[in-house]
């Protein structure tokens, strides 16, 4: 079961980060630290939510397989969802048990599938940032490269390096970074309210947003 309060928390922290026109809290002397903290605060709840969404998807499918059976189309739909939740190797393992959906009416086959699916963990894409580029997953590289272009990170980095980084210049750069992040979130309909629903397409893109924003913010650290 998906904990909707967790989704509400993630949405709230993400909205805080994207609120480029809102002043920083009174007494906050380090805006970069503030924004890095916002990203860190949403990360663990986001992955708990991702795991819950994954578990909810496969459990609903297995339950239907036991009660009334599942079609090839329904198995394909589940695979498309799982691909957004799992690392490539785990996705391959999960897909193996979905190749013959009609066979899942057999309790023994269903038990094997359930044992496999229950043992898999949702992929934490942001952890790919700590790996050498040649060992990062293709999905992570693709998403972060695309995100870097969409957020105009190269332009922001050029502005950053042009002159000494005063507080005023930093605030201008941060405002633009948050604006670009909010614009991207709006275009791809990232959840901005508790009534919105995260899905396997949106979640990896939010993970990439977190990673790319964090990567750039670290270049702005002055102390």
Task: Summarize the SSE layout with pairings.
Layout lengths: L3 H15 L12 H37 L4 H14 L2 H9 L10 H12 L19 H13 L2 H10 L4 H21 L14 H17 L5
How many strands appear in the DSSP assignment? 0
* Helix-residue proportion: 55-70%
Give the count of helical stretches. 9
Shape: elongated
Please mark out the parts with pLDDT under 50 across 5 or more consecutive residues, or reply none: none
Largest sheet: none
CA(first)-CA(last) distance: 43 Å
The number of domains is 1
- Strand portion: under 5%
Mean pLDDT: 90
The structural class is mainly alpha
Please provide the ordered H/E string of secondary-structure elements.
HHHHHHHHH
Radius of gyration based on Cα positions: 20 Å
Can you put this structure into words, describing what you see?
Helix 2 packs antiparallel against helix 5 and helix 6 (138-150) packs across helix 9. The chain has one domain (1-223). The chain has 223 residues and is mainly alpha-helical. Helix content is 66%, strand content 0%. The protein has helices spanning 4-18, 31-67, 72-85, 88-96, 107-118, 138-150, 153-162, 167-187, 202-218.
């Amino acid at each position: 079961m998906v904990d909707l309060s967790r989704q509400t928390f993630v949405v709230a922290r993400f909205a805080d980060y994207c609120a480029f026109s809102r002043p920083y809290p009174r007494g906050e002397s380090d805006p970069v630290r503030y924004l890095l903290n916002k990203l860190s605060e949403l990360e663990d709840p986001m992955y708990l939510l991702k795991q819950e969404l994954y578990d909810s998807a496969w459990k609903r499918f297995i339950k239907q397989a036991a009660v009334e059976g599942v079609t090839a189309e329904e198995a394909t739909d589940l695979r498309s969802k799982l691909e957004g939740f799992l690392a490539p190797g785990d996705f391959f393992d999960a897909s193996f048990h979905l190749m013959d959906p009609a066979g899942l009416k057999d309790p023994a086959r269903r038990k094997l599938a359930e044992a496999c699916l229950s043992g898999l963990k949702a992929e934490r894409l942001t952890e790919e940032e700590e790996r050498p580029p040649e060992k990062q997953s293709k999905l992570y590289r693709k998403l972060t490269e695309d995100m870097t272009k969409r957020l105009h990170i190269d332009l922001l980095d050029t502005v950053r390096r042009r002159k000494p980084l005063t507080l005023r210049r930093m605030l201008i750069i941060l405002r633009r970074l948050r604006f670009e992040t909010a614009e991207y979130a709006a275009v791809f309909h990232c959840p901005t309210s508790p009534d919105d629903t995260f899905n396997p397409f949106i979640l990896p893109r939010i993970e990439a947003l977190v990673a790319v924003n964090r990567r750039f913010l670290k270049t702005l650290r002055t102390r």
